[in-house]
Amino acid sequence: MEIVNTKPLTYFGDDDLTPVQQFYHEKSVLITGASGFMGKVLLEKLLRSCPGVGNVYILLRPKRGEQPLQRLEKLMKDPVFERLRRERGSLIGATPGVVPITGDISRPGLGISAADRAVLVSSVEIVFHVAATVRFNEKMRQALQTNLGGTNAVMQLCKEMHQLKSFVYVSTAYTNSPRDKVDEVVYTPPVDPDKILQCMEWMSEEQFEDLAPSLLGEWPNTYTYSKMLAECLVTKHCTNMPVAIFRPAIVISTHKEPVAGWLDNLNGPAGITIGSLLGTIRCFHCNSSLRVDLIPVDMAANAMLVSGWVTAHNIHAEPKVYNFVSSAQKPITWKEYMRICETYGVPYPSEKAMWYYCLTLVSNKPLYKVMSLFMHDIPARLIDIIPILMGRGAKMSKLYAKIDQFSDVLSYFTNKQWDFTDNNVQGLHKMCNDGDRALFPLNIGELQWDSYLKNYMTGLRLYLLKEPIENLPVARRRYLALFCLHRGMQLGLLYGSFRVIMGLSTVFARFRLAK
């Protein structure tokens, strides 16, 4: 294990710490999934806002020739840690600090060494299990191995810890997606998760794939199904333990901390929004009148840290569940979301744009397929004619095949409405004093969608498209040209339609005269 310095920020003493800060003071923490989207923000917030925290162990596997320490050094250079670097200087060289643990949640026993396990068992007091495969179309065995098997391994490790005070399992609000109303409870699973774990010991990937349709039942994908089973496993085996199940909805960019608008992936709505602003996505299968449960990632991290504190002081017969959603307190529809994104996206276009913004949300699936054919597939095939003749391949057709697959994966969530309750989450806010409410804001009811999504659109351009504000004049000139082409094509189609109608009218009139 290597130590990466996280020298504490200056503070005046234990009496000056808020209750949440006091809870994490000098305590060792284990975070799985710290290199992922939510994990990064959780790690950054913990280090920056809890200055006296002890060692923070993070599980990392060797990847693409990089060892865990190299991955950690690279991780700490991410823009989300810029404020932390600025406030602390160098992050490498002392202890307490961030300690990379070589391991893999998809392997038995997390793939960690006996020596590392002994350190974790003897020193860790707080665990956040964030790691998961979030691919909706992951093969069944891989999803179960990572999301169910990995959770089982973390749970077993927690049971061995001598001084465990809090274990927060990060799930998803959509574990019970077949239901219309989802309360903050763990529902009875369609199958015993322990039996699935037993099957994983001898069944092959091919056998699981053959069984996948019958296993999934009403669940839309392997992600929600495997996370549902993991929740049930934790509930079954963690009775009378300091355990919480945290269910965030659709997590998107930061609200305010450590910087507004930061995002590092194109999952979910971000992919639709970027695609529409680039002009590649011109129609999407979505019921615009339905609510969409969007959650700022920094507010989710705050709620996770607060739930860790509350869990240590409120041990229940079963884990307490927290539905961290927006629809219960601050609802927004897909139509409103896209309208605000268009308002703040079009004036700040991308230099990479292929066409002008013209997104249409279509709830009727057959109509969407027809519109996709004329707005995506046919134009792509026409554009590909010359590259194919030159031997370069059908790049645009391949792109739209991926977009069509992306639409199919998301359509379940863009055309279904859920009613979530979030009383336990509101209880977290009420339990905080003024100091913790200022340090760890988690009240979704205070969120202002207009200002938040304005920063979100700026973040998409800056962090995902990697376009600084300096290239805006060039991007706007290009976008103006695309706008002229867009309007010209619309006028051309309108004129062509008019000529066709007039021609048909003339033919019809002559036919009537001839009779």
Provide structural commentary.
- The protein has 18 helices and 14 strands.
- With 515 residues, it is of the alpha/beta class.
- It has a domain at 4-260 and 292-332 and 417-447: NAD(P)-binding Rossmann-like Domain (Rossmann fold).
- The strands form 4 sheets. The chain has an 8-stranded mixed beta sheet, with helices on both faces. It has a two-stranded parallel sheet with strand order 7-14.
- Helix 6 (140-160) packs across helix 7.
- It is globular and about 95 Å long.
Can you summarize this structure?
The chain has 515 residues and is of the alpha/beta class. It has 18 helices and 14 strands. The strands form 4 sheets. It has an 8-stranded mixed sheet with strand order 1-4-3-2-5-6-8-12, sandwiched between helices. Strands 7-14 form a two-stranded parallel sheet. The chain has a two-stranded parallel ribbon with strand order 9-11.
